[in-house]
Model the fold of this input.
Amino acid sequence: MDYLIRFSQSHETFRLPEIEALALLEGVDLKVISYSLDSPFCIVRLPSEDAARRLIRRSILTMSIHELWAHGPDLTAVHSAVKRDTGHLWPRYRTCSFKFSIDSYQGSRGSDAKVRIIESFSYLGFEGPIVMRGADEEFVLFEDWPFNASRLGIPEPNYFYFGRFLGGGARDLPKKLDLKKRRYISTTSMDAELALVTANLALAGPGKLVYDPFVGTGSFPIACAQFGALTFGSDIDGRSIRGDSKKRTLRANFEQYGLLAGLGGMFTADLTNSPVRRTALRYDGDGVTGRIFDAVVCDPPYGVREGLKVLGVRDPEKSLGVELRGKEMYKNPDFIPPKKPFSFLAMLDTILQFSAQTLVDNGRLSFWMPTANDEDQEIPVPTHPYLEIVSGLDDSSHTAASPTPKWTRRP
Amino acid sequence: MKVLTLNFLTCAVKSCKTSVDSFPLHPKDAELVSDDVELNPQLLVNLLPRIDWNALRTTATELGFPTLPEQPPTPEELQADEKMLQDLHKLLMETQISEGKLVCGACGHEYAVREGIANFLLPSHLV
Done:
């Protein structure tokens, strides 16, 4: 059976990868029949109604999924397809309460026109009560209008889809985790919607372990914990984790959302001198390898709003004094170790190497990176012999236009 | 910091990575607190293959918990053993080091734990 996904028309390049990740996560056999970045309508083939509901229940970029009864370039085509293909379904909905609605993308119609169109479906023979809220079944006619249709005086949409509503996505979650209402954020906290999409791409879920080596105020771990994962994180600046040690802390954010069960552990550390236990790189395929994480998820500092720093001194010969002072002072509880600037490209390699050493087989690395440097030269997506690229995505709405490439650990 | 997290962490000094003595880190002057966390059997089963059992035995003993069996349970054994689930849950998920130090058995470096957050930053001469 074919189903219609009604996407939100935002972060378009992330929509299909998110659905594909969710298909993997839910064990649903998904075949995409038609999809375009310019349209919020996507036709997919799925084994069952139940699979359709499960596929999108935690999708951030999907509004709803529908059993597709018919589609076509005009209403006449839709009606003849409904009559030709779905007659056997009509009796099932003869007596239940129902609702009929029209969803016009990039267009609108007056209520008279809407009523006329809805009444043109009267041959379906539904006799149950019409209920606007909480109807047993909801039938939706989708209209795909050309851009700017009303101003250009275009009278009819380009395309129609007609289907029965099955279930909604998780469009409420970005509101729940909205940064505007979060107790503790910083200038670089990741937008809730994008953090949730990243968590979906990373296949975060119950029983999974996720690690963010640039945790900041915890946006990614919170999004992953929302989906049931146990989360870990570190930051070279411990103050970002500790906050004001009272109400505004990373832990308080987990508390605010009732997600404390998903808070594994946070610590202060530098990824180039990481304390995380790692195993030697090898292909073994036995599944038991001492590797720890199901996903590494992060938004490393690119050096725009935050300088990228790691432990060490910039010029060891000139800074001999600094190092000697450190040698004497480092046991002092207030000692702050010196840091030096680090190249973003070297950090990318560090992230990939770390992930290859700590991800379980088929574990995922999902992170944000700028597509170009200050001189507008393209930064290529890095590669690693033990990691396979699942998708590289572009999102121009994010600061500095970042794709989020995603890797999976080769077994 | 949970005992579970401690099982994932070793000395941050690069020259210690090859030394067997650098893992697990040894708690020193550790203040323990216990958080109420809901038992999640599936999570514990998933954790099993990622835990270094020998290191966990050492940590359990050092923190004054009853000695763990020499061999880790299999996933099936763990699922069937309510007491083992409870014990591991208490040790791994509920017990936290709130203040104290973590000491590397190889180089002797001490990492401070404050407000439950351990600090693994190193001075320049150890980087």
Notes: The longest helix of chain B spans residues 82-94.
